[in-house]
């Protein structure tokens, strides 16, 4: 019995079964969305990411109403950076540091710091899982796959930032573990519009080599 079907999804309709679909909210953390965070420290304009928050919020509300499991992820390192490979730190020197003009004196991409909190609009509700991940993908170094398996989840809906980095990496990891994945087009953003466009195109190319995409409005309608 198909509980949800998004007929308008690209490259062809996407459907999931009752109780077998979860929503994954990828890295909606202040580090990426607020001035002074990791994203800003790399010279990016964070206002582009905030554009996707309203659509992500509508998808989140609909998933909660439908009783769908919701999983939030955070790119978050241990305070001693023991889970941050030196190669990552070398290319992103701000990690673990307190940057000038940063978020409330917080250390960049470190668990428990103010900048590592979810943006208030998309905060986790009581009982929702928040996965801290040391990498770009949410399956590497986490118990996400085990959690999804224990819930009987086979299909995943995604919102999050940034489209071509943590969202796409997580979708590819999910694919390799057998999940069917749909990315909500207007509930994801990148600092680089051309990278977002290219990611949406490459996900759905070749008969959905990575998965499906669809608008928030159509996904929300399918959750009712
Ligand atoms: C990045 C992410 N862009 N969450 N992280 O470094 O996409």
Can you tell me about this structure?
This protein has 224 residues and is of the alpha/beta class. It has nine helices and eight strands. The strands form two sheets. It has a six-stranded parallel sheet with strand order 5-4-3-6-7-8, with helices on both faces. Strands 1-2 form a two-stranded antiparallel ribbon. The longest helix is centred in the last third of the chain and has 16 residues, at 193-208. It is globular, with a radius of gyration of 17 Å. The two termini are 15 Å apart. The model has no long low-confidence stretch (mean pLDDT 96). It binds dicarbonimidic diamide. The site of dicarbonimidic diamide (C5J) has 8 residues, from helix 7.
Name the ligand types: dicarbonimidic diamide
- Strand order across the biggest sheet? 5-4-3-6-7-8
Number of beta strands: 8
Report the sheet-strand fraction: 15-25%
Count of alpha/pi helices: 9
The separation of the N and C termini measures 15 Å
Helicity range:
25-40%
Rounded average pLDDT: 96
């Amino acid at each position: 019995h198909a509980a949800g079907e998004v007929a308008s999804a690209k490259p062809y309709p996407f459907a999931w079964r009752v109780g077998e679909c979860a929503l994954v909210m990828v890295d909606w953390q202040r580090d990426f969305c607020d001035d002074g965070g990791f994203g800003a420290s790399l010279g990016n304009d964070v206002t582009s990411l905030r554009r996707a928050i309203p659509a992500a919020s509508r998808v989140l509300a609909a998933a909660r109403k439908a009783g769908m499991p919701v999983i939030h992820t955070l790119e978050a390192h241990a305070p001693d950076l023991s889970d941050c490979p030196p190669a990552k730190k070398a290319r992103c020197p701000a990690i673990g540091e307190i940057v000038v003009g940063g978020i409330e004196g917080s250390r960049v991409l470190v668990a428990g710091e103010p900048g590592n909190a979810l943006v208030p609009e998309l905060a986790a509700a009581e009982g929702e899982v928040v996965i801290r991940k040391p990498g770009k993908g949410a399956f590497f170094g986490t118990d996400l796959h085990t959690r999804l398996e224990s819930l009987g989840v086979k299909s995943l809906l995604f919102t999050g930032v940034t489209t071509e980095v943590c969202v796409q990496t997580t979708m590819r990891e999910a694919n390799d573990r057998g999940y069917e994945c749909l990315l909500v087009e207007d509930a994801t953003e990148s600092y680089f519009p051309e990278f977002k466009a290219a990611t949406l195109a490459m996900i759905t190319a070749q008969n959905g080599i990575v998965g499906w995409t669809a608008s928030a409005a159509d996904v929300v309608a399918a959750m009712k």
